[in-house]
Structure prediction request, 553 residues.
Amino acid sequence: MAKYLLLKHYRGAPASVNCTPMDQWSPDEISAHVGYMNDFAARLEKTGEYVDSQALAPEGTWVRYDGEGRPPVTDGPFAETKDLIAGWMIIDVDSHERALQLAGELSAAPGADGEPIHEWLELRPFLGEHPTITE
Amino acid sequence: MDEALLRGLIPGVLTILVRRGADFAAAEDAVQDALVEAVRVWPVDPPQDPKGWLVTVAWRKFLDVVRADTARRRREDHFTEEPVTGPAVDDTLQLYFLCAHPSLTPASAVALTLRAVGGLTTRQIARAYLVPEATMAQRISRAKRTVAGVEGASARVRRGAGVEAPSGLGQPNTGAEAPSGRAGPGAGGRFDRPGGVATVLRVLYLVFNEGYSGDIDLAAEAVRLTRQLAAQVDHPEVAGLLALMLLHHARRAARTASDGSLVPLAEQDRGRWDTRSIAEGVGILQAALARDRLGEFQAQAAIAALHADAPTAEETDWVQIVEWYDELTRLTDSPVVRLNRAVAVGEADGPRAGLAALSALDDSLPRHTAVAAYLHERDGDLAKAARLYAEGAHQAPNLAERDHLTRRAARLNARGCR
Prediction:
């Protein structure tokens, strides 16, 4: 089994195919979208592949150590370019193929007109601590 | 109360219930209920025969559940009269094969094996795999349902005389053949199409390679379960896997430094190897090899034994190790084996020979770059080695390996070989 992070972006990812912003969807379309993601998570819990999912606020703060005795520096000159993470889901699956398949399904969540958004998701494998023994 | 004793009894009790006709999931629930009762009752009133006690209570719990069906109840009450029979040693064998059934995904097979054969709690297994308990519970209950479906299908097939098994159940087992002798799967009649020995061994090796995290040491658990299996199945590959695990396990303390970083085999403090475990592994391996039915695990164990046998890294018998890799290549034809063989060739015949062996392989193989880096370093091309180590670190599949390769690159770079 291997864990993967499915990363959703507010900004920084290529545009979705069905790219109407969410605030211009109908309330039913929003419910359908949210419902799709909840169903997806529930289904993964049943298959034993679900680990975690969280949504993040769009406003983040950049922080940096600024020397002994000084308060950390917050935010920088990067406000307009930083990649914003909207949220994530962590899955634990048997293969990379399965992870790709699930990411594809999540990307097919319905948006405007009930059509799939075709949103780009970032799929990143976890690095475990322990190597398998190969020596 | 002796928790280890209790845990050791679970598989046997479970098997008896299943043999008497309980389906797997119901039997498991009943055994859990019996355990809860044992924890309550035994401190006050310890039983003379703990296993018999558990069987009686678990069976009663099972009957309570199915009581609604009176016809079934009559049949099952009849079984209650049967004494607990048979040698304890082969009780759990059917469970091994059932839990490794080919219809299960590897992850489900591992989880079910740890639950049913190992007697671990769902929470312990979830912790070891760093997933939520609810997720692991679902994984296990799905596995149980899958296995129950398989059992049902086999039973239906048996009832219809002369009917062939449906496809998917009657597939020939790949890899090693089924064990011989009375204790073989199917001897009990109920699980007549279980996974082959090869599947069971693969599941146990998966458990072993998960290593450890939290309170459960999965490597030690895998050794324990394989030892139990080896006591029940007379098969050289089972012995081969047990030997391999013991030999790997014996070097565990020396494999990582106190800060958790990897220590390569050549730099390990051989004084920290567990010599008793090595001696046991070598003995088991020799007995297995003497039977002249070579398999993958025996060949791997032979390589591990040659490493364990060398008093210093320099004294390693690389020529013989290359020969064993040739055997392994013949048995598996796995690209990973060829990659390891290239390393061994590099040690036996020099880094140029190793690089030549490596050049025949696909460079997208995991660890290909790291091996190339090592061979170039030994060949004296330090700049190229440093670059390849850095690249290998980038591709590393886990943190320990990544840090190790980054350190190697840094060490060469610090020597000013850029």
Chain A touches chain B at residues 1, 3, 45-52, 92, 94, 127-135 (CB under 8 Å).
